[in-house]
């Protein structure tokens, strides 16, 4: 059987599938040609990440499709229920990239509190001519330790983020309408660990209390953070979104950054992805990455082998 990994798959995933008797195709097929390619090449399994969409049109056009796999967590680029109604298995890897995303969240947090994103833009331009000026401009950093991190969505990635925050000595609060409370276990290199219970609170109270806010939610119909929500937050709050574009009103965010209400933002995802707005890309108070939360070698290895294991388990 043939597997089309249209958005790529790790070497370990390819080897595991090949060992199971599958032929893996890593040719990148344009979105509008995916259905034709699947049919012409008798593809039984299509694997995607966030780029390729598997909607009703592809599902209807490809009667030989047995499995649709998403390398990662969110499946908003797949018509999951419709695929299942047609007898197609839909799989994903919700646990494989949690630590990678959480580490990127802290990359943005550290960047924001110490102005790394902006100093790395300006040091090559002015470092030799305005060293003292830049030193003064970036002199008012703050520490994360002792501050309150508000985690919106305390699922797997939210919990991984909470663990890192606790390790840094931060207070962690959370809001999650589906998870009333969770025990978070922070494990150390020598086998020791500590466990603490995080109880969900209202989103409104989280916005009021948090010094920093990180979002870990699926795609939404509307904004979780808009002008109204921003107005209730602490002055100088930092906001990070490594979840999904469209959960923050970017126009309201820019206004809040310009007014100083929000000290900085860290964005890995964008409303108009893959063409983020220029006002976002050029803003000196925004730390930017191009949707790379799960893009570590370790996460991709875990994703590839887990997908292979699920496929072999379903189809044999």
UniProtKB/TrEMBL annotation:
<dbReference type="InterPro" id="IPR006140">
    <property type="entry name" value="D-isomer_DH_NAD-bd"/>
</dbReference>
<dbReference type="Pfam" id="PF02826">
    <property type="entry name" value="2-Hacid_dh_C"/>
</dbReference>
<feature type="domain" description="D-isomer specific 2-hydroxyacid dehydrogenase catalytic">
    <location>
        <begin position="8"/>
        <end position="312"/>
    </location>
</feature>
<protein>
    <submittedName>
        <fullName>D-2-hydroxyacid dehydrogenase</fullName>
    </submittedName>
</protein>
<keyword id="KW-0560">Oxidoreductase</keyword>
<dbReference type="InterPro" id="IPR036291">
    <property type="entry name" value="NAD(P)-bd_dom_sf"/>
</dbReference>
<dbReference type="InterPro" id="IPR050857">
    <property type="entry name" value="D-2-hydroxyacid_DH"/>
</dbReference>
<dbReference type="InterPro" id="IPR006139">
    <property type="entry name" value="D-isomer_2_OHA_DH_cat_dom"/>
</dbReference>
<feature type="domain" description="D-isomer specific 2-hydroxyacid dehydrogenase NAD-binding">
    <location>
        <begin position="107"/>
        <end position="293"/>
    </location>
</feature>
<keyword id="KW-0520">NAD</keyword>
<comment type="similarity">
    <text>Belongs to the D-isomer specific 2-hydroxyacid dehydrogenase family.</text>
</comment>
<dbReference type="Pfam" id="PF00389">
    <property type="entry name" value="2-Hacid_dh"/>
</dbReference>
């Amino acid at each position: 059987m043939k597997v089309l990994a249209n958005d790529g798959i790790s070497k370990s995933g390819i080897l595991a599938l090949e060992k199971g008797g599958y032929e893996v195709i890593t040719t990148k097929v344009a979105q509008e040609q995916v259905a034709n390619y699947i049919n012409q090449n008798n593809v039984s399994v299509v694997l995607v990440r966030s780029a390729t969409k598997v909607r009703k049109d592809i599902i209807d056009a490809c009667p030989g499709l047995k499995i649709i796999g998403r390398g990662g967590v969110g499946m908003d680029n797949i018509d999951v229920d419709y695929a299942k109604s047609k007898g197609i298995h839909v799989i994903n890897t919700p646990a494989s990239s949690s630590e990678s995303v959480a580490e990127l969240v802290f990359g943005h947090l550290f960047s924001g509190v110490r102005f790394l994103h902006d100093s790395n833009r300006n040091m090559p331009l002015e470092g030799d001519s305005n060293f003292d000026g830049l030193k003064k401009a970036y002199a008012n950093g703050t520490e994360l330790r002792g501050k309150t991190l508000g985690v919106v969505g305390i699922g797997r990635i939210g919990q991984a983020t909470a663990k890192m925050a606790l390790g840094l000595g931060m207070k962690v609060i959370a809001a999650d309408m589906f998870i009333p409370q969770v025990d978070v276990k922070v494990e150390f290199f020598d086998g020791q660990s500590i466990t603490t219970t995080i109880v969900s609170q209202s989103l409104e109270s989280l916005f009021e209390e948090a010094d920093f806010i990180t979002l870990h939610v699926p795609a939404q119909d509307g904004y979780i953070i808009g002008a109204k929500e921003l107005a209730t937050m602490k002055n100088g709050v930092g906001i990070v979104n490594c979840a999904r574009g469209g959960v923050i009103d970017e126009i309201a965010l820019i206004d809040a950054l310009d007014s100083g209400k929000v000290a900085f933002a860290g964005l890995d995802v964008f409303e108009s992805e893959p063409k983020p707005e220029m006002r976002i890309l050029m803003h000196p108070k925004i730390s930017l990455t191009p949707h790379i939360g799960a893009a570590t070698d370790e996460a991709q290895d875990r994703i590839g082998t887990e997908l292979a294991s699920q496929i072999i388990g379903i189809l044999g």
